Amino acid sequence: MAGMAGREGGGHGFGDGVAFAALVHRALVRERRRPMRDVAAALGLSYAAFHARVSGRVPFSPAEVSRLLHELPDMRLADCLLRHTRFVAFERPSPSCAAEAGGALAVAAMAMEALAGLVAGLALAAEADGVDPMARLEEVQRAVAALAFVLPQHVDARRRAASRAMPTGMEARATTSAP
After folding, report:
1. Global pTM value
2. Which of 59, 67, 49, 48 is nearest to 20 (CA)?
């Protein structure tokens, strides 16, 4: 993508627009995740207008970025947008998934899986994007600390609720001796 050299930011107002466009190009063209024409249509753009964005000549609008992340869910895209912020991108668990699998405990387990994926992705990011994996270590440490704080509180609350629900003393004898 020689045409994108020297266009730092690409006029997006967030993240590095050139890097974002390069990642979209990579996912669609080199990795063949989806046909460009299909994604262009899903974003409501002509092929030519979408190609101008993917090649870095025209910036994606925030609404287009949002629709693009829906059509091409790739953590690298979200991470690129948040690269120079205090924030880290994680896949949002669906509400039905969290409810079915035990609520907050399931969300914490999914967050742990996401952390494992993030750590594994650090090595790939260094190779693919020239990003120093150690630069992301602080983000990982903050996320681990947050989980380490939340998970024990949730487990303790569940244990207390379970112990209150158990019959004790005379109640236990009454329920076992009833015909």
Report:
1. 0.50
2. 59
